[in-house]
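Reviewer 2 asked us to include a model.

Predict the structure of this chain.
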Amino acid sequence: MADIITTPRVVDDNSCLLYGRLFKLAGPVQTVRASEFPGKIVFGDFTRASHPYASYMSFQNTVGGAGIYEFTTPDNQSDRFWTSTCLTWKNNYITLAPLATSIANPTGETGAVTSIVHGHNDNIYVSFGANIYQLQTTLTYTAVLKALSVSPTGKPVVFNGFTYWPRGASGYTRYDGTTFTDITQEAKYFTVWDGKLFLVESTTATVKYSTSGANGSWTSLATALDMVASESTGMLVYDDTASDPVVYILTKRGPYVVDFTAAKVLRTRLQIPRSQNSGKGSGVWRDSLYFSSEMAVYKYLAGDPAIVQPIGLDRDDAVPAEHKGAIVDFAPDISYLFWVLDSTSLSNNALVNGPAGAGNTGPAFGGFGALTTGSRSTGFSTIYLRNSVGNHILYQSSSTATASTILIVSDAYSTNRLYFNSNGLVYRIDLVRGLDNPTLDTTATYNATGSHTTSWFWGDNKSQAKTALRMLVETESMSSTETATIYYGLNGATSWTALGSAITANGGRELFFGTDNEGISFRSIRFRVDLARGTTNTTRPVIKDLTLEFLRNPDAIRGFTITIDCSDDWYGSTPAEQVNNIWTIVNTNTLGTFSYRDDAGNTRSFLVRVMSPTGTEGSGYDERGRYILQLVEFNTNG
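Predicted model (structure tokens):
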């Protein structure tokens, strides 16, 4: 019944048009704001909610990990963020990540790093291509110890006082600290179980074992009949359904279990479609097997029934496009586990999705980029750290033409370290034992810079206009060289605006939005924190609190109060007809036109809904009446 054109027109100052009918007004039209001011909301740290009308969003708790491009449920995602090269795995603590230090390659060596192993004699051995070197306590390399016939095909293992390097169809090589011995028995991968060294062959997928590892000592156990030999990607030891340790073969279609007693190789309950890099970044941490497939990781708890939980980098909003790749190695530590995400290893079978913006290609803000297929030879490679709840970036390569494929955790040379390859070099990161508290540990070393990007924040209403008032920041360990600079981005834009100058002082501070602290309007907002230190690598700036104070703005919805006089005939309608027309309007479920003449003689017109009528009517034969109507605008009529 909504009539867009006001016909008949309002020609009298004391008349109004309502839903196509003319009524007589008893007094002026009263205009009010019908929309109520929204109540405050608080996400994250409730202790920051000091203003009775302002709302708050705390970006400080980051333990939930990366991978949320935009908050969909901020109350459940307040400990998440988009991406960061800072230390984010400690509660309410953002600072520089642990220092990653490169180790100079052996003189004249140009081969790629193909293996790193903590050997049988507590030494670290590194192979560049087919050349094996010892990494010494001085973090320099010996001369070439051994030139293998081919590069290692899998991870070296330690067994019975020897270190073993698999060479696929070419056999394997073992070393006792004095002599390298080449053996022709095929060995693509090794693992150790029950006093035996197990291998899987390259050409037949046959599993063999030996109690000595010597030439001619191998016993054939079983062949995986439904597994192509080229599908194997690793071996390890984990529990069977009865919680007894057994040998597993990792493959491109999931893990297989070796039944030693029955001499069979059987599929497990974790089965996935075939994918090129599946199984490469797999391992055991605490009570579970972690199986990787491209960017996905499945936490597998053996039992009857088995429990499978997806926890990989493909979940939620995944990663920025420049970081996508395949998880290709795994290393457990006491408190954390580590993955290598090699961004040069995106296979032809991999499908990677990423949100638009922040370097991603794809549709406008809020959408997802196109699925990407095919091989790539460039891209950032990343070492991820996983705590008990989320994935965090520990290291990210500085070049787009590098590969990270290997990492190990070792306590060789009386120092706990993570070793990995990147940029054609081996890197090390010292790992904390005991006092894992960056606030109290004065000997830890940190990277020179770091950048932290929050998720896009919409409040709890994407269509609602909001006003950013100020950012509440708490810092410590700051100085003229230990600094933090905060930037913000608005409404899906890729550009950044600095929120004040670099912070160099400790304590709490308020960073106001707007030229004169009047605030800025936004529908969505995100933040970036850039941290930097001076030349002393044991110093670092610390962000202890990062809370946005903002207003939720109500829509400017007008309300009208009018009094309709139904005491006389008006434009052909009797008082009784006017009263009936009012109730017809009240019971109409669509919007209708409300028009009247203002003080300047202009006609104003709005689409409204009648909300609450209050009327007085005569009794008996007296059909006159007077009604007070409350109207609420939904659109301006035109």
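Residues 1-6, 347-376 have pLDDT under 50 and may be disordered. The first helix runs from residue 74 to 77. We have added this to the supplementary material.
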